[in-house]
Amino acid sequence: LGIGFVGWFKWNHDAPRRSSLHALYRLDAALRSDSTDTLFACLMLPRALEGRAPWEQAEFIRKSLRDEVSAEGVEALRKHGAYGPLQQLFPAEAEAWAKQAGVKAEDCVAFKLERHGQLCEVVLTRGGGRLKSEVGGQKSETSDGFRIVRCNNVKQMALPSTNPLSSITDHGSRITNSTLAYRQ
């Protein structure tokens, strides 16, 4: 009975993290679809895009994010990324990032992962702000309510390092270019 309770508690405690990952998978699918409503349901509207036509907003978002997210990158983030309150993971940037989307930093959660010399930043919010999907006077709710506020370098977390020597070691020390040349 005790093991069952611990399992239920962990499952329940991890629910926001799972929902946040689900929001990233939805964003990946929405970027590849033709539906602007699906795309808008995934995101918070950056204040810089307010006042533009919905098709302009969708075009800008697709161009900006298509190289930033992939299912493989989300999987790498799931396995290796840190997750928690935005103000805890990105204390220096939290207020500015939240303000750009018109939300409160304390209402946001984030993923953070440094890999291959790049930093992955994902910020999400649940409620408490202008939903991206309010464009055109229509609201679109999702089952978990998480919306992406910021998304950088998720796709790059799944890609192999661009440095061919970064994963090659010789008894724990890095092999240099000249060492590698002699071994060929």
Nearest-angstrom radius of gyration?
A: 19 Å
Helical region count?
Answer: 8
| SSE string, helices as H and strands as E | HHHHHEHHEEEEEH
Q: Mind summarizing the main beta sheet? A: 4 strands, antiparallel
Distance between the termini: 59 Å
Number of strands: 6
Question: Structural class of the secondary elements?
Answer: alpha+beta
Main-sheet strand order equals 1-2-3-4
| Helical fraction | 40-55%
Report the β-strand fraction as a percent range. 15-25%
Mass-distribution shape: globular
Uncertain segments: 5-11, 128-143, 162-184
The pLDDT mean sits at 76
Overview of the molecule:
The protein has 184 residues and is of the alpha+beta class. Helices cover 42% and strands 17% of the residues. It has helices spanning 2-13, 15-32, 36-42, 54-65, 71-80, 86-89, 94-101, 177-183; strands at 82-85, 108-115, 118-126, 146-152, 169-170, 173-174. A four-stranded antiparallel beta sheet has the order 1-2-3-4, with helices on both faces. Strand 2 (108-115) and strand 3 form a beta hairpin. The chain is globular and about 50 Å long. The model is unreliable at 5-11, 128-143 and 162-184 (pLDDT under 50).
